[in-house]
Amino acid sequence: MKKRLRLFVAVIILAASISLLVWGYMPNPHETRIQPIAPAEMQLPTPSSLHFDLMPVA
Amino acid sequence: MIKLFFSPRNISLLFSALMIFATILACGGGASAPEPTGAGEVENTSQPAAAVETVQPAFTQAAIAPTIPLPNIAPNSPTAQPAINESRRLTLEFPSKMRAGVEGDVVRLTLEVNDLGNITPTARVEGNVIVGETIEIPDLYETHNVTAEAELDMAGMLVQPSDAIFEPLTRGQSVTFYWSIRPQETGVYRGTVWLHLNFADKSTGEASRIAVSAQIIEIEAVDFFGLSVNLTRTSGVIGSIVGGVVGFPFIEDIIKFLFKRKRR
């Protein structure tokens, strides 16, 4: 009876320790995002987009 | 008084006033005419140009729009703005979940040339025929120094380098940015990965900057039921040793048990 109890405790300790080790050394899950960039998005900024003549709102 | 009222002078004044009033009515008759119900009626009218301005705005637009000459767009402008004639692909790799405490990880941002990307030819429509045109665009790499600038903004987390990183961008070459991150405490951290392109004219030195991408990332820092990473790893090592020592006398029994099960 004592022998079985000792075996049971050993298995429990080993299982818990291995779980801790697996969690501690498991690689982090990585996320990858891929975004295509068209040539039109890498052009020189056009000055015509600026609007300097400010107008009253109301 | 009655004699004075019907004097020849008053009669002539009254007649003049009536004539002026009649003239005003005659001139204003065109403006108070009933509104046309469609454009067909408008085309048949012979109103002068001044009268057209007094009608409803929608009607004015319908009547005047066909007479406005369409602007002529030059198909091949000799002063085409220099452009980057290559398509690229932006790849962002980051840990979505990581352990808080001493452990760090890496965020990687790569701007590489997309082999599958082709420059779309510009087409111009003339009537019902689509005419393809080859537009020679000056290469931006020859006229400007292009620099890619990347930055990772993430509050509450240690980020190295914390400032912007600059990499020169040349034709056909990829650029990669790395950040080392380390969360001190558990929680959800949100940040933004910025990518800008800086252009510096080689001849004039004029600098300009555009934002290419701003991606929001979310990283969750976790622990093991309140235990830190170091404590968890140490506990795992010590527990394995203790479990091995406690269970060592029974290794023979365990092996025998397993072999008996296999034979059955």
Helices, strands, pairings?
The complex is a heterodimer of chains A (58) and B (264).
Chain A: H1 2-25, E1 30-37
Chain B: H1 2-5, H2 8-28, H3 39-44, H4 49-52, H5 57-64, E1 88-95, E2 97-99, E3 105-113, E4 122-126, E5 129-133, H6 140-143, E6 144-154, E7 157-160, E8 165-169, E9 175-183, E10 187-201, E11 207-222, H7 229-247, H8 251-263
Parallel strand pairs in B: 2-11
Antiparallel strand pairs in B: 1-3, 3-9, 4-5, 6-8, 6-10, 7-9, 10-11
Q: Mind explaining what this structure looks like?
A:
The complex is a heterodimer of chains A (58) and B (264). Chain A has one helix spanning 2-25, and one strand at residues 30-37. With 58 residues, chain A is α+β, with helices and mostly antiparallel strands. In chain B, the strands form three sheets. Chain B has a five-stranded mixed β-sheet. A four-stranded antiparallel β-sheet of chain B has the order 1-3-9-7, with no helix packed on it. In chain B, strands 4-5 form a two-stranded antiparallel ribbon. Chain B has a domain at 100-222: Immunoglobulin-like. The model of chain B is unreliable at 29-78, 117-126 and 128-133 (pLDDT under 50). Chain B is of the alpha+beta class and 264 residues long. Chain B has helices at residues 2-5, 8-28, 39-44, 49-52, 57-64, 140-143, 229-247, 251-263, and strands at residues 88-95, 97-99, 105-113, 122-126, 129-133, 144-154, 157-160, 165-169, 175-183, 187-201, 207-222. Chain B is elongated. Strand 1 (30-37) of chain A pairs antiparallel with strand 1 (88-95) of chain B.
